[in-house]
Design brief:
A hairpin with a 2-residue loop joins strand 4 and strand 5. This protein has 13 helices and ten strands. The chain is an alpha/beta fold and 279 residues long. Helix 5 packs parallel to helix 7. The protein has two domains: 171 residues, Rossmann fold, CATH 3.40.50.300; 36 residues, no CATH class. The protein binds adenosine-5'-triphosphate and magnesium ion. The site of magnesium ion has 4 residues, from helix 1.
């Protein structure tokens, strides 16, 4: 479904390759977390999934990227945007219209969806994301977190097969983040949406992602099940990443404890282990 084959990329103004000979495949319905230290090339990699690189962001690009059977080099960003719902890291850059309803309708209008269907989807998505209260607001007055939620609404309303979310919860408070996690799980598990999520909060990914791709210095350092990569404390620290809190905590318990304690790979497993220990 997503295939990146031997891709290298250098921005016009950079002095060396930001991505170096990267290859990976993502199948339909996977929930993939992309992690890596700041500046390692996560956003750059994802810009290729809807063709922002090489069509809008210029540089030296080589290799092949295909998404849903389409080579991005042959397609416009508009065409790819119907397949790939893309949430940029900076919400302000993505807002295109003056008010919330026009913003959510904008993408659907570009897809040629009927007026009736637009209104139906708009009502549905405001309800699902719990942002009906933003309906009559001007986009310029929204907080950064509100902008993130409105952008997500506009993307989900277009019903793309693939969601690429670049730090989509970075400006949300904890309750909103947890609500968003529930929505994303449903989209992935029930509607079989493929989700590619760049995220610095590894606790969040431990709950959400099935697979993790770790990038550093423009290369894939590790690619495997979330339960494996996110519990590999040494690998994470070597790459300047903070392990999930629950993983670090259990490593501490492991060191102190005289009985065998395994490292949990989810919050629910951590609860089970703690229950057993406290018996
Ligand atoms: N338009 C640009 N022109 C030149 N260099 C750029 C451009 N955009 C990004 N870079 C550089 O490319 C490298 C990778 O940037 P990128 O935004 O992909 O990193 P990232 O992993 O997403 O980081 P973060 O976690 O901070 O978002 C960085 O060194 C960055 O400064
Ligand atoms: Mg980034």
């Amino acid at each position: 479904m997503i295939e990146i084959h031997k891709v290298s990329f250098q921005y016009l103004s950079s002095t060396s390759n930001i991505l170096e000979n990267v290859s990976l495949k993502i199948e339909k319905g996977e929930f993939v977390g992309i992690i890596g230290p700041t500046g390692c090339g996560k956003s750059t990699l994802c810009y290729m999934l809807n063709g922002l690189i090489p069509h809008s962001i210029k540089g030296y690009f080589s290799g092949v990227v295909s998404v849903s059977g389409k080579k991005i080099i042959d397609e416009s960003v508009e065409v790819m945007s119907a397949i790939v719902g893309y949430m940029l890291q900076e919400p302000t850059f993505q807002i295109a219209t003056p008010n919330v309803t026009s913003e959510i309708a904008f993408g659907m209008e570009n897809l040629g969806i009927s007026r009736e269907e637009i209104i139906k989807r708009l009502d549905g998505i405001l309800e699902t994301l719990g942002i009906n209260y933003l309906r009559n607001r001007a986009t310029a007055d929204l907080s950064e977190g509100e902008k993130q939620r409105v952008i997500l609404a506009s993307i989900l309303a277009m019903d793309p097969q693939i969601l690429v979310l670049d730090e989509c919860s970075s400006m949300l408070d904890l309750p909103s983040k947890l609500e968003l996690a529930t929505t994303l799980k449903q989209l992935n598990k029930i509607e079989q949406k493929t989700i590619v999520m760049i995220e610095h909060d590894l606790d969040y990914l431990l709950e959400l992602a099935d697979r993790i791709i770790l990038i550093n210095n423009g290369q894939i350092i590790a690619d495997g099940p979330a339960a494996m990569i996110l519990t590999d404390i040494d690998l994470l620290r070597e790459n300047n990443l903070v392990p999930p809190t629950v993983v670090s905590l259990f490593q501490e318990i492991q060191k102190e404890s005289k009985i065998a304690v395994e490292i949990p790979d989810s919050h629910s497993q951590a609860t089970k282990i703690l229950r057993r220990l406290l018996k």
